[in-house]
Write a structure and sequence with these properties.
With 160 residues, the chain is mainly α. Helices cover 79% and strands 0% of the residues. The longest helix is centred in the C-terminal third of the chain and has 33 residues.
């Protein structure tokens, strides 16, 4: 990495995204939004039906809220992920089988990704990059061994 700081919107967004469980929060938010969009009843009908109808809107709303809070407050990610998975599983009963399984699966996968995110973990290195680094290291050690051997040979010649 060079000593100059990166400038622009894309590098700033990349740094912001790397400091939080971005994809998990996005999936949890999208899962809750998908469940909310699959609801057909108007709010007047839901209020008339009572608590059972209100839960159909409350649980996906909690999913969206947990996803957004994870994105903007990653310090509490474990709490948000547990609440998010409970709300996702609760939509199975209250919201058209969890938004026809799509919202339920998005919410469950997003919550699991949030729960498994580690903030202090460095970026992953691909297998191709590891092999390339090993080849370069082997070439450097072979080169160093070759120059040491030549130096040892000249030292032996001087001693004779």
């Amino acid at each position: 990495m060079s000593g100059t700081p990166k400038q622009g919107v894309r590098p700033a967004f990349h740094d912001w995204r790397a400091a939080r469980p971005f994809w998990g929060g996005l999936l949890l938010t999208l899962g809750g939004a998908e469940i909310l969009f699959t609801e057909k009843a108007s709010l007047k009908v839901v209020m008339h039906i009572g608590m059972q109808g209100l839960a159909g809107y409350l649980l996906p709303g909690v999913m969206v809220l947990c996803g957004l809070l994870t994105l903007f407050s990653p310090g509490q990610r474990l709490f948000y992920s547990i609440i998010g998975i409970c709300a996702s599983l609760g939509t199975w009963l209250t919201s058209n089988l969890g938004g026809f399984f799509i919202g339920l699966l998005l919410g469950a996968v997003g919550s699991c990704m949030i729960f498994g995110w580690l903030p202090d973990q460095g970026p992953r290195v691909s297998q191709r990059q590891r092999k390339k680094a090993a080849r370069m290291e082997a070439a450097e050690t072979a080169e160093a061994a070759g120059s040491d051997g030549a130096a040892a040979g000249t030292a032996e010649a001087v001693q004779l």
